[in-house]
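User: Fold this one for me? It's 3-oxoacyl-[acyl-carrier-protein] reductase.
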Amino acid sequence: MKPLEGKVAIVTGGSRGIGAAIAKELARKGAQVAINYQSNVESADAVIKAIEEEGGTSYAIKADVSDANDIQQFIGSVKERFGKIDILVNNAGITRDKTFRNLSEEEWNEVIDVNLNSVYRTTSVVINEMLEQKYGRIINISSIIGQAGGFGQTNYAASKAGMIGFTKSLALETAKNGITVNAVCPGFIATEMVSAMPEKVLDSIVSKVPMRRLGEVDEIAEAVVYLATANYITGQTINVNGGLYM
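Assistant: Here's what I get for 3-oxoacyl-[acyl-carrier-protein] reductase.
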């Protein structure tokens, strides 16, 4: 029997990059997986197809994590389809990088809304059911930038640091009810966004990583599965960064 057999997982932003890798790995471990996408239905369909080709069960729906009604409808449809929710992976995120003096209030609010406020929205919809069933795994995908900061990323760093504080506080509130709440902080991972950086910038980043390479999306997915299957780990921040931040 697979370790997540019979479990139902939601992965926000699961149509590409780290989110897609997480969705696929959860499915490989036996979970039924639901993902949302905002606009790229082709990418979402590709994830669903990949999961189903390996014998898994998955489901995708168009939903904007910055819209409370979309979140309600998305999670409601997952409950209707699969009957419950056991695992929530808050992965959806965006960047709007600018130095602070050039950062508009709109760009600040957009990143906070998608990256941090969405964590409140999704978790608030699933938490009561998890408390009632005395089981739940909430895993928030933060970032090394939320720990160490990043030039031109005050909005992104604030949102990702906020996720860590949210994680620790909710873990304290829910531990006695069989719910674990943890965060994963990726370093620089070989996604489309990172790979699009100028070669000199990438070389500079890699030179500072003790392992001398970028991380792989599957390495983040492995950490998520570990937390999804662990029973006595909560309120923790798991760093997957090749030793760049310790």
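One thing worth pointing out: The first helix runs from residue 17 to 28.
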